């Protein structure tokens, strides 16, 4: 958790102050119209002061002008501070990048910055990978701590879904040949640096809309203030420009305008700290709007590995025979499922076989046959999905055993388990039940999501029966069984047609179209380059459960914006009550009754309002950077809560604040 | 304040809320283009119109086309009335031989009636012939009301439709609303008024001999027919200068109640119709709820202030409420209620003189207008104005539930915000801008009858009324000058069409959007929380802008009164 002290740590505040002044450059400032207006007004008053055109106390005018400039500076400071936090993170990334060199296949070395898309480079043990690319030859273990912070090495190999490598990561063992897939300066690392620094920051759609609203309010209040001199002249009086300026600046939404970009940068930054890299701010906003979450069963809902829990032989086959065959077929199977079959056979049935008999021929699992097995001691043992085993043994599907097996497998599936058929020489022996273990706490998570109004859909390759059972146990709202990438894509399109926003995560190349289609597509960092390109976020930890937190972070960003906007607008009521009586009391002394705060003098009232208006900005910086806490309590209660805190609070706080400042101002004799 | 007075306010509130659904169902049938019982008789008339004009009522128009046709129609109607007023002297049905109206006056009046304002710088019975009243003006009472409802329908379609560009057909909306709603209602209403004693004749003058034997000319005319649409269409332009305070316009307590109900009837019906159109009547009730909160708050303040009366008169031994400018027949409560209804609703009909209200009693009607007359509001204009604030409220607070703001299933994005702000900014721009002009220029300063803050209130009220298309006046002002006629004319035109065009653009933008189904994570726009939020946003964004001007007008006036100074 970020604390206020770390937000204002000296290491960040120092440069931020410098940058706050640098951001006064009109070309920079004009991007924030409200702050720009404030600066123009401050400049105008400064000029008027120098020209001596105002009939107001000199000291009072100076104070007013100083606070106006401070209002602008507090705004630019908030933005600079938020950027500084990102920049600190970028610095370590940049360090990793600067000394990269690439070794070409002919042995020559060139600086990494000269690599172009399509170049082939060789990376050996201990080398840093010079550019983003795809492994074309070999396999290596790679330490990706530089970008993920995770020190456990990951395997990168040619072909398949683990071929992507990232610049700045280090090969720990073996060597690979890789093809560069990015033009210089556009790699993953470059983009990450640019994003966390806020250099490439573009306003998101929601930010643009909010800015329009703030400009609109500024115009409306400008009209309200600009017409006052005429009204005053009707009443036979004159209102000094400085007072009008004070009223204008306190009324226009300076608070939210000053904090708006800081909120956006901090939102991105929170995601980066969470080891998720969003390719645009738009994606973060979309995360808050998500209505449907597509969650892969394996790894998200269940722990990745299924465990063998039962042997179910068909009539006429002893359990031990089935266990024996299953064990043989699994000895060479290094998957967790295979190992769990071996364990079950040994522990439950005392099968002693320790290793494959010599001369045994292992038949590996392929995506086409979807069975694996072993040919040993003159017989062929096969293990695989029921239909695949039938298919591999023509005719076996018509026997009485086959029908019995179907009944058994249905039972297994209904129990939420996955059946694996085992056959010896084409004879069906029975099935192994593989049990999915549902992760602790997911049920609560899903009911939390439901309260947030988000529907969860479990995506699984399992058959519908198994899927339904697991779905019910895990408490997801819906499931997509026997899902192919096309099914996923269709589901996303269908939901989007219904006006819902969909989030999903994926890692394989065949996930890429769905990742691209989804409103929030989180690619796993271990995934293929194609998947990482297609998604609009990359999870550096490759943890699919994080999708849920990503939604929370998106909501937090939007909520922070809404809360501070509401607060800013609600503040205006008190400011009116401070300034209007102070300004008009010379015209109609009776209007002093509007001074309900009992402020000590007109000048003090105006100064206090301006000081409050300025000070509230740095006071709210921690909130803007940390974000308003999101609670999964449903929109109604959430709104009630936030309206009470930021709406009502925004109404009351300035009454108290302005009064206290007035006491100080009067006490110090400042006005 | 009396129990009787509060009972009247309560009875009115209950009756008007009870009217919302039946009126809404009627409107909803027209919104959808469904058959009504009147189709049997009027169906051929409707089809005849379309045939004659070569219009396909089923041809959907996008917002640009809808807006263009609407504007061309308004322009044509405006010029038609302008011509009639100018040529009144040579046209028939002018038994008193009145002369034509001057250019600035005629233009002001033509704009006034086209924009549903019915600001009258003249006394109707003195300056206008029967032809001018019936053809030149009453026709607008129907058409401007129908236009308002048509725009509201178009905006409802924006919210209700999905991924389409069409927001209805302007001509079909106009024809249906006029034929199947306004005409039948007005017919029944006018007969009721005639039965209650309102004149309806082509004769112009009745000679009477008073008890003292003095000969008196009493102006009469086709009053009942104009009276009906004046109320239903929230037009407010009376046949007589005294408007609904005149016994020929508003003869009995019952007609007074019915008039008040009829001002609000279409407005409350449209709120319900909106809910129905977007598939959830509770959305409509929530809007009506927020309107009623603002309404009752207004009525309470006015009644309290008027009943409290003037402390300076109390010191002179004249106790009681403020009866200056009120019809003794109606008294305090009915006058307070009427004044709030007529200003809340952009009607502008009056049964008492707002200028004579206490300062704060007069502030409420003025504030109602400045908010944009969205508390029930003018027919159509009220609900579409209100929806602009709903869009803003959703945008400001909607983010607080952690989603991009949505309202009734439509995402509110930069385009909608831009247009809503544009439409809402028109009010302060015109009201405050023109008041500022008038309060420094000599031509403007010549207008107000009274001095000090009260005179300022008169100017402020004038431009509020014009921009808000209300049409009522703080009677003290002399506005029939070229300066005021011109400025008020511009204010009325801008206040009407610089609001309508953005509204239609929003409708077009919303209609093109997908529908986002409501979930438990969606921003709730039906409960009391939403009602409270709406009221706050309306008061803060819509209202606070006017606080400086109100402080220098009615508030200063009121405080001066307390300190024993009157203007």
TrEMBL record, chain A:
Its main location: membrane. SUPFAM superfamilies: Calcium ATPase, transduction domain A, Calcium ATPase, transmembrane domain M, HAD-like, Metal cation-transporting ATPase, ATP-binding domain N. It is a multi-pass membrane protein. GO terms for molecular function: ATP binding; ATP hydrolysis activity; magnesium ion binding; P-type potassium transmembrane transporter activity. It catalyses: K(+)(out) + ATP + H2O = K(+)(in) + ADP + phosphate + H(+). It is found in: Cell membrane; Membrane. ATP binds at residues 333, 337, 365-372, 383. Residues 107-197 form the P-type ATPase A domain. The keyword Glycosyltransferase does not apply. Belongs to the cation transport ATPase (P-type) (TC 3.A.3) family. Type IA subfamily. HAMAP family: KdpB (MF_00285). NCBIfam families: ATPase_P-type, kdpB. PANTHER family: POTASSIUM-TRANSPORTING ATPASE ATP-BINDING SUBUNIT. The system is composed of three essential subunits: KdpA, KdpB and KdpC. This is Potassium-transporting ATPase ATP-binding subunit. It comes from Sphingobium nicotianae. The gene is kdpB.
TrEMBL record, chain B:
The chain crosses the membrane at residues 66-85, 97-114, 134-156, 177-198, 253-273, 285-304, 330-353, 374-399, 419-441, 487-510, 530-552. It is found in: Cell membrane. It comes from the Bacteria. InterPro entries: KdpA (IPR004623). One of its GO terms (cellular component) is plasma membrane. The keyword Signal does not apply. One of its GO terms (molecular function) is P-type potassium transmembrane transporter activity. The keyword Membrane applies. Signal peptide: none annotated. It is a multi-pass membrane protein. Keywords: Cell membrane, Ion transport, Membrane, Potassium, Potassium transport, Transmembrane, Transmembrane helix, Transport. The system is composed of three essential subunits: KdpA, KdpB and KdpC. Belongs to the KdpA family. NCBIfam families: kdpA. HAMAP family: KdpA. Part of the high-affinity ATP-driven potassium transport (or Kdp) system, which catalyzes the hydrolysis of ATP coupled with the electrogenic transport of potassium into the cytoplasm. This subunit binds the extracellular potassium ions and delivers the ions to the membrane domain of KdpB through an intramembrane tunnel. This is Potassium-transporting ATPase potassium-binding subunit.
